[in-house]
Amino acid sequence: SSSSSSSTFDSSLCTDRAFELGVGKSCLCNRFVRPAQDEFRLKHISTVHEADFAGQVLRNSHWLYWGCVERRPGHLCHVVEQTEFVNDKDLRPFPTHSPYFMRCTATKLHASQKLAWVCSDQLGFENDYPKQRAPDGSLLIEGFLVCVDLSRTLDSQIQFLQEVAPLLQKTKRPALLVATKVDCLLDVARQHQQHQFGDCVTAALTAGYVQRLELLRKECRRFRCFISGAG
To answer: What are the TM regions of this chain, as residue ranges (predicted)?
Structure first.
């Protein structure tokens, strides 16, 4: 609609380096764009055939277009995700002009006839899935979601945040820290309870979760100060 405003949010700022995959970016995007239970996919692979990397969905690029949704009346959100696709022949990343930390803070992406990502099974069978295309031309990124996986140790993730924060500051775009996989930690605690491994195990798991969450909160305050230029 010509009267609607439009924003593009990049969920790609995450703490996974090459081959350290699975911090939950794709599941986060899936939940936001297609929240219905029967439209949610838990597994989104990054190892693909060369032909699929050059196909309609990936278009020889290391970013996904998740589609456009309206979360507030008159305001459209385009969602993209930066990642790293690996060739299934040699398990090496497809060539790219920029390293990940540079790509994930880019404020402009070029799209040409690029289809929205639905799931891994879509590759090679694009006609069997709904088709939504990214806007042709330049896609401007107006905000960033920085994903942190609470099911992992935070040391390397915080290091990544510290490295990427100066680049985010230069973009002068809003950035939010997002905690992922909280449900995974809680599920593990519930499983221990169901199998009667003892309250001490559950307490240790819960304490670990609380400790990570508190560490993330502290880092969030520092991150916010840094991005705003106050620190």
So the answer is: none
